[in-house]
Amino acid sequence: xxxxxxxxxxxxxxxxxxxxxxxxxxxxxxxxxxxxxxxxxxxxxxxxxxxxxxxxxxxxxxxxxxxxxxxxxxxxxxxxxxxxxxxxxxxxxxxxxxxxxxxxxxxxxxxxxxxxxxxxxxxxxxxxxxxxxxxxxxxxxxxxxxxxxxxxxxxxxxxxxxxxxxxxxxxxxxxxx
Length: 177
Prior knowledge:
The protein folds into two domains: 4-74, Immunoglobulin-like (Sandwich), CATH 2.60.40.2340; 84-176, no CATH class. Helices cover 10% and strands 44% of the residues. The protein has one helix spanning 142-158, and strands spanning 4-6, 9-14, 23-24, 33-36, 39-40, 47-48, 54-59, 65-74, 84-91, 94-101, 104-113, 118-123, 129-134, 137-140. The chain has 177 residues and is mainly β. It is rod-shaped. Strands 1-2-8-7-4-5 form a six-stranded mixed beta sheet, with no helix packed on it. A four-stranded antiparallel beta sheet has the order 9-10-11-14, covered by helices on one side. Strands 3-6 form a two-stranded antiparallel ribbon. The chain is built from one helix and 14 strands; from the N terminus they run ββββββββββββββα. Residues 167-177 have low confidence and may be disordered.
């Protein structure tokens, strides 16, 4: 990693997960000594805690000194490349589905409604409404589908994608799914 020098400020960025509590700086100087809080530093040997900016003092042979403030930033977490897949075991008009997203799995039942079936299912916040359809499709249990959506929303929030006020399964309601 190389720091960027701008006047008496030096900034550097380290990869996500780097322990910045004991980083060792490598530097070259024409000065007599380099110190941090009065402790003489040796290039490539002296460790410092960079959880907050660290001030390096460079002292010249004539006794004059200059201070350089080093600030270390950590990159954000990497974007997970997740594999999502579902597997199903069909029994009659039901399928037991296992949905795997980002290493977490959720089991739920899907129900098949053929062209001649009418099916009524809950909608709205807290499933307060209902809708009826006459068509051929697979439908998931509302509570479980909401649970899966809530888990995905929480993952997205935790990984800096976006964040809502809540990952409660009833936060969006089925009208928004």
